[in-house]
């Protein structure tokens, strides 16, 4: 018996864990709506630009010293 529980209890916990993991992944994908498309030609090195929007200074606010 794995983890000191009976097989039916173990299988119930395992199935509940897997179902909750899949449900959580679905919720995250529905919330963030990721772009899962694959371009036909990959970008050349240095061509792909990514930005961290949370780390950019806000416009109109002077930098604090």
TrEMBL record:
Topology relative to the membrane: Single-pass membrane protein
Domain of life assignment: Eukaryota
GO cellular component term, pick one: mitochondrial inner membrane
Localisation: Mitochondrion inner membrane
Family named by the database record: Belongs to the UQCC6 family.
Chain intervals for the UniProt region annotation (Disordered): 37-65
Keyword list, A-Z: Membrane, Mitochondrion, Mitochondrion inner membrane, Signal, Transmembrane, Transmembrane helix
Signal sequence interval, chain numbering: 1-25
Protein name: Uncharacterized protein
One of the GO biological process terms: mitochondrial respiratory chain complex III assembly
């Amino acid at each position: 018996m794995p983890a000191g529980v009976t097989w039916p209890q173990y299988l119930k916990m395992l199935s509940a864990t897997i179902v909750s993991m899949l449900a959580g992944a679905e919720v995250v994908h529905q919330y963030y709506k990721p772009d899962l498309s694959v371009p036909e030609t990959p970008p050349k090195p240095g061509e792909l630009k990514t930005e961290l929007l949370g780390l950019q200074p806000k416009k109109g606010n002077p930098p604090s010293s």
